[in-house]
């Protein structure tokens, strides 16, 4: 009997000690830290890669600042590069405005996997809701690094290899909460990459000193009918002004324009939307044509 009593007592003591240890451990363990920015980055990348839209930013970051939106986008870029993508350049947003006081330059990154070949078929299924805006743009390819930005337009022009025509496909990943436009700001769009969904880099080339920057025009034809037209002056007076903003914005984020980068600067017209089978041609006044079809 004494032996059984001793064994029972020992069992109770061990159990009590274990319970005390478990309780003490749970009471002293620090609470898990939730990285809201990391959640946003992973979520946005998922939706971008699956050609879907999300109201996540409007829900989780209703009052997002420009600084936070830049942080989220650049962390997305960092993860894309770690996964094997190659960064080839930038797009500018907020550049099409009639009022220079309202100019709000924003940027988005461009990856090699975003490039679509000219005269190829673009698949509607590769865009959210199977529709996309077609933007006629003027781009620049750089021939030197700008680690510290540029002090003047002349310094910037000296670092441009050539001017190029381009088409951007734009479709926002970020959407308003419950369809209420007031729940979404331009900073939400910035965080998600400014709606960049693809790019065609045209075959047109021009020397920066010979290119008539302010008078270049483009017409967009869909199935042979004129759908939109515009001039380079619609891009903040000249696309060169948009490039100048970018070259000086990036160093503030610890990055910079590099040799070989391509930068597109904003649409020259009010963008038409395509959402079904069609043939599209953009006719630039001096840089030539860019054609593609949608299936």
UniProtKB/TrEMBL annotation:
Transmembrane segments: none annotated. It comes from the Bacteria. InterPro entries: Fumarylacetoacetase_C_sf (IPR036663), Hydratase-Decarb/MhpD_sf (IPR050772). This is Hydratase/decarboxylase. It comes from Agaribacillus aureus.
